[in-house]
From TrEMBL:
It is found in: Cell membrane. Keywords: Cell membrane, Glycoprotein, GPI-anchor, Heparan sulfate, Lipoprotein, Membrane, Proteoglycan, Signal. The gene is Gpc5. PROSITE patterns: GLYPICAN. PANTHER family: GLYPICAN (PTHR10822), GLYPICAN-5 (PTHR10822:SF19). The keyword Membrane applies. Belongs to the glypican family. InterPro entries: Glypican, Glypican_CS. This is GPC5 protein.
Length: 368
């Protein structure tokens, strides 16, 4: 009553043993595909972590630099500016990780929060009553009167251009892991299951436990079983090309590093621009938001302090070099995996599964 290992000669197998063999080949095939996938997955996961650490290092550096700008040049508002600065860099980090946000909304929200502080601490330092309503009016007015000139828009343009490729790369790496995980759990068809039992276990039913399948026979069976997986070949090659393009985009003229490290300068220029146009801004704000309470003898707003660059060059160079090295290593490894899905049958028929060095092997029907 055997269904798979039918043979003219007497057999030592039962129907129950055939069922056990079917369960065994399912388990073995999943394990062997997982073993093949492991190195590739390990490399991608490792690089997701490494890229993220390098991005975070650059972001921390840029955030500290921006904080130090307020502490050295704009001390009256340094404490209150800490929160908007933190939010800006958190939003940038979330954007790189693929969150549903935009660089523009992050930057404009930052300048919305910054304007009430610049207005009440630098342009009109005598303001004592900064109520919620007045603060909100200043935030909303910022969008109409554009106190920071073209600097806020320039910052959006520079950051959007350089962060886009980092965001895409982050999403592409996660997609790669998803694809690999899906192929690990590709279910074997009934025909494939029977073919694998016939190839690996039917010789046992005749007592031939040391005979292994012929190479050509194994390749035919595996290619039939993994036809749906090997169909990924063209898309996988295209995916590797896309990764290569994205890593080159990020590396091109060090856009990411330059844009992040230049945030403090854009913020500084924007604040200086607002201070220089203080009288006109005050006149417009008074019309729209009314006049707030002020201390007697308004403090001078002429104390504009152009800030000199605070260099923490060593940290920045190290983070930049580390990111560049990781890019190179990663893309070189991924290029070697171009044929991963095209050659999956060959890799599964490698090693101990087939008989390579002997002329005696199993062809599915007999020993040849």
């Amino acid at each position: 009553d055997l269904q798979i290992c039918q043979h003219r000669a007497p057999t030592c197998c039962t129907r129950k043993m055939e069922e056990s063999y079917q369960a065994a080949v399912r388990r073995e095939r999943t394990q062997s595909i997982q073993a093949l996938n492991f190195e590739l997955k390990y490399m991608i996961v490792g690089h997701i972590t490494a890229f993220q650490e390098a991005f975070e290092s650059l972001l921390r550096f840029a955030e500290n630099r921006t904080r130090s700008l307020f502490e050295t040049a704009y001390r009256p508002m340094a404490k209150e500016a800490a929160e908007p600065v933190k939010e800006l860099f958190t939003d940038i980090s979330l954007y790189i990780l693929g969150a549903e946000t935009t660089v523009e909304s992050a930057v404009l929200r930052f300048f919305d929060s910054l304007f009430p502080l610049v207005y009440s601490r630098l342009i009109n330092p005598g303001i004592t009553d900064l109520s919620e309503d007045y603060t909100e009016c200043l935030r909303l007015t910022r969008q109409d009167i554009n106190p920071f000139g073209h600097y806020s828009k320039n910052m959006v343009t520079e950051l959007s251009k350089s962060l886009w490729a980092s965001r895409m790369l982050s999403q592409a790496l996660s997609l790669g892991i998803e694809v690999i995980n899906t192929t690990e759990h590709a279910t074997l068809t009934k025909e494939c299951n029977r073919a694998l039992v016939k190839m690996q276990y039917c010789p046992h039913c005749q007592g031939l436990t040391l005979i292994r399948p012929c190479v050509g026979y194994c390749l035919n069976v595996m290619r039939g079983c993994l036809a749906s997986v090997s169909e990924l070949d063209a898309q996988w090659r295209e995916y590797i090309s896309t990764l290569e393009y994205l890593t080159n985009e990020i590396a091109a003229s060090h856009d990411l590093e330059i844009a992040l490290s230049g945030i403090w300068n854009s913020v500084n220029e924007a604040i200086l621009h607002a201070q220089l146009n203080g009288p006109q801004l005050s006149a417009t704000v008074d019309k729209v938001c009314g006049q707030p309470k002020q201390q007697e003898g308004n403090l001078s707003s002429a104390n504009i302090v152009p800030v000199k660059e605070v260099t923490e060059a060593q940290t920045f160079v190290m983070a930049h070099a580390s990111l560049n090295n990781k890019r190179r290593e990663f893309i070189n490894y991924m290029k070697r995996s171009r044929t991963f899905y095209a050659s999956i049958a060959e890799r599964l028929c490698d090693g101990d599964l087939v008989m390579r060095d002997s002329s005696t092997c199993w062809n599915g029907e007999d020993v040849v």
